[in-house]
Design a protein that fits this description.
This protein is an all-alpha fold and about 300 residues long. The chain has helices at about 5-25, 25-30, 40-60, 70-100, 100-110, 110-125, 130-145, 160-180, 185-210, 215-245, 250, 255-270, 275-295.
Amino acid sequence: MTTEEHRHRAAYFYAAIAVVCWSTAASAFKLSLRHLDVLGLLLVASLTSTLALLTYLLATGNMRLLSGLTRRDYYVSAGLGFLNPFLYYVVLFEAYSLLLAQEAQPLNFVWPLTLVLLSIPLLGQRIKLASLFAIVISFSGVIVIGTRGDVLGFRFSNPLGVVLALSTTIVWSLYWIFNTRDKQEETVRLFVNFAFASVFIFLVWLCFGDVAVPSFRGVIGGIYIGLFEMGLAFLAWLKALRSAKTTAHVVSLIYLVPFLSLVLIALVLNETILPSTLVGLPLIIAGIFLQKRWAGA
């Protein structure tokens, strides 16, 4: 086996790890929120992820790269850390506390389309008419899921939860748009972002959170989320993108996440999968797939 073939196989291996980790996230969120409030859960998860990234930097010898960061780099990382994981996960966890997992997860998954829309005013990119049609297809799926099939009545099952879930896509897209301007090494950037976010979360938790001895199950859930949904998944995905011949080889695996997640939601959370979810989710995925395909045509 050539070196290139080995790297290509490694890319799929790392991508599979990320996909499996992200597929468990929705179930982990719902289970953990039964035992900890939003801020408490996020604090445990963010601290865990920060420690995991610190351990990775120490193990790989990349801690020395921190000495090369300028004051401006730290300001940028503080801003990015405010967006993600602080603001993004506060809004996301709140959405999960209001919606069924099978609703929150697909609504959160439309972020690639939000990224396209925000790239028009922020990056000056143009969008094809076919791509707009694909976006309409996906957002029709959002309406089906958000209204639980009552499309004509246009009555959302939980309007605030739907708005929060869709708002996460804006925060996530802004994070990645601004991230393209940050020239730090990826793992160093993630570590500094999470370190700043942990400080933000701790201060907000002291002011507004349930400052009490946390539930053991909630802490375990937060550690799991911090290790697997945040830390390990991010690192595995970065390695997959670096090892792949082209990003297209591994990015397509992301489409497996909502479907695997739906299976786990049914098995772990015992949620009865609604017909609206079974209709809306394929519409969302189809729109994202078509947008990517037509955008590159």
